[in-house]
């Protein structure tokens, strides 16, 4: 039987909270997962870029996935899907991450291209990497294209389509590159029933939906999950004007969020929703909102206001 694809909807790439000594703050992370579930998101992405995956060891990763899966099940959200970041420089290490994620309750693995030896990462090498991983993976995988964290590696639509057509265990992609044309080419070539292409930023959520995105995987959903779900609802109801109004707010807020980074996202969540902190693992600095400028805070506060008005 061919593997399934992630369900259509909003996915939050969950931030990972830490205590002052940089150990996992599971209590705050689970509180955050609960708020996302209650906000109506379809699933969570754990240990992605916003989850500070490079700063987590194997024990952290296993503990985090298992704790979130068990917590969601206990709360009655067993249907929520978990996509878990499992990328590593080698095929061998990537497969170890995937095996551990699968044992801990993950549904899908999200894989960055190997990027330590950037100059050696030709399209053929990248395609070989993903084929090797997918062929041995116990979980179906999604290709993660994010040039900002891979030394500029930008996987082409040609490569993604070729990989999906040659390996049935490759069931989707996340395009944080922001290339809506690439998303359109992929979604119009590959059957939606066997491949889920996701836009990877709130900045182009509505345009991504129009281009065939399977929903969205967006950092700003950590702050405003309900607003993202409402954009999706309006789009599905044919209220494009209403969706555009909210999209404008999301685009301004997303641009501001990029300026404060991962620990800034956590600081905003802590300030507005009362749990966690802006603590990261070094070399990332701990952040608080009182260090942010007005041009960062204002668009984010507008989205927070919308979030708190959503039912």
From TrEMBL:
The residues the record assigns to binding pyruvate are: 217
Active site residues according to the UniProt entry:
144 (proton donor/acceptor), 174 (schiff-base intermediate with substrate)
Q: Which GO terms describe its molecular function?
A: 4-hydroxy-tetrahydrodipicolinate synthase activity
Q: Name one Pfam family in it.
A: DHDPS
Q: Does Lyase show up as a keyword for this record? A: yes
Q: Which UniProt keywords apply?
A: Lyase
Q: Which family does it belong to?
A: Belongs to the DapA family.
The protein here is known as Aldolase
């Amino acid at each position: 039987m061919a593997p399934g694809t992630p369900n259509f909807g909003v996915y939050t790439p969950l931030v990972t909270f830490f205590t002052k000594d940089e150990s996992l703050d599971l209590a705050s992370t689970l509180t955050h997962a609960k708020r996302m579930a209650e906000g109506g998101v379809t699933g969570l992405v754990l240990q992605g870029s916003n989850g500070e995956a490079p700063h987590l060891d194997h024990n952290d990763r296993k503990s985090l996935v298992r704790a979130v899966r068990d917590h969601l099940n206990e709360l009655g959200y067993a249907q929520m899907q978990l996509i878990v970041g499992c990328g590593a420089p080698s095929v061998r290490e990537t497969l170890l991450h995937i095996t551990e994620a699968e044992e801990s309750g993950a549904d899908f693995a999200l894989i960055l291209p190997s990027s330590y030896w950037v100059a050696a990462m030709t399209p053929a090498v990248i395609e070989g990497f993903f084929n090797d991983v997918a062929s041995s993976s116990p979980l179906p995988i999604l290709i993660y294209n994010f040039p900002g964290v891979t030394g500029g590696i930008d996987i082409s639509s040609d490569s993604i389509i070729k990989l999906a057509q040659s390996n049935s265990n490759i069931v989707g992609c996340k395009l944080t590159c922001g290339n809506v044309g690439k998303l359109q080419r992929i979604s119009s070539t590959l059957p939606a029933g066997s491949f889920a292409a996701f836009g990877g930023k709130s900045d182009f959520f509505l345009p991504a939906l129009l281009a065939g995105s399977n929903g969205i995987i967006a950092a700003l959903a950590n702050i405003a999950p309900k607003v993202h779900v409402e954009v999706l609802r309006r789009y599905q109801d044919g209220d494009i004007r209403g969706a555009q109004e909210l999209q404008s707010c999301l685009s301004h807020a997303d641009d501001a969020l990029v300026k404060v980074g991962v620990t800034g996202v956590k600081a905003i969540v802590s300030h507005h929703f009362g749990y966690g902190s802006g603590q990261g693992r070094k070399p990332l600095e701990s952040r608080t909102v009182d260090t942010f400028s007005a041009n960062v805070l204002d668009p984010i506060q507008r989205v927070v206001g919308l979030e708190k008005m959503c039912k």
